[in-house]
């Protein structure tokens, strides 16, 4: 399958003003999923889609990408053997799939994604 980058996430502290900024700057459609998360529709079939999120705790300002993998646990274990560390263990996104975050040896946070029904 490879390991494609399939999603981006932009973190923020003030959700409403950040959503307005990206909507007005790029013309992105924003679909609210509660007061702290909005899906961003870039309006293009080129590139990937993403979302904006206000976690309610640090870190507030971050940007991360999600790489789709077949096995979250195995990918986290391999990252650990290569000098990385798990930041967020596998979590379910109801009806969509599972994600996890790891930190590479330089401190960059990368997301892993496995959609529901994927091998």
Can you offer a commentary on this structure?
The mean pLDDT is 94. With 119 residues, the chain is of the alpha+beta class. The radius of gyration is 15 Å and the shape is globular. The chain contains two helices and eight strands, in the order βαββββαβββ. The termini are close together. Strands 2-3-4-1-5-8-7-6 form an eight-stranded mixed beta sheet, covered by helices on one side.
Strand content: 35-45%
Largest sheet: 8 strands, mixed
Gap between N and C termini, in Å?
A: 10 Å
Number of strands: 8
Residue runs with pLDDT of under 50 for 5 or more positions = none
What is the H/E string?
EHEEEEHEEE
Strand adjacency order, main sheet: 2-3-4-1-5-8-7-6
The coarse overall form would be globular
**Count of alpha and pi helical runs:** 2
Arithmetic mean pLDDT: 94
Rounded to the nearest angstrom, the radius of gyration is 15 Å
Structural class: alpha+beta
Helix content: 10-25%
């Amino acid at each position: 399958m490879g390991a494609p980058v399939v999603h981006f996430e932009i973190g923020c502290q003030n959700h409403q003003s950040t959503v307005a900024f990206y909507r007005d700057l790029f013309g992105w459609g924003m679909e609210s999923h509660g007061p702290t998360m909005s899906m961003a529709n870039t309006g293009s079939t080129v590139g990937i889609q993403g979302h904006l999120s206000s976690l309610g705790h640090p870190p507030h300002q971050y940007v991360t990408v999600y790489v789709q993998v077949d096995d979250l646990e195995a990918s986290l274990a391999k990252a650990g053997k290569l000098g990385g560390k798990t930041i967020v263990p596998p979590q379910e996104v109801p009806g969509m799939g599972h994600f996890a975050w790891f930190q590479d040896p330089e401190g960059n946070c990368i997301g892993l994604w496995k959609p529901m029904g994927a091998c």
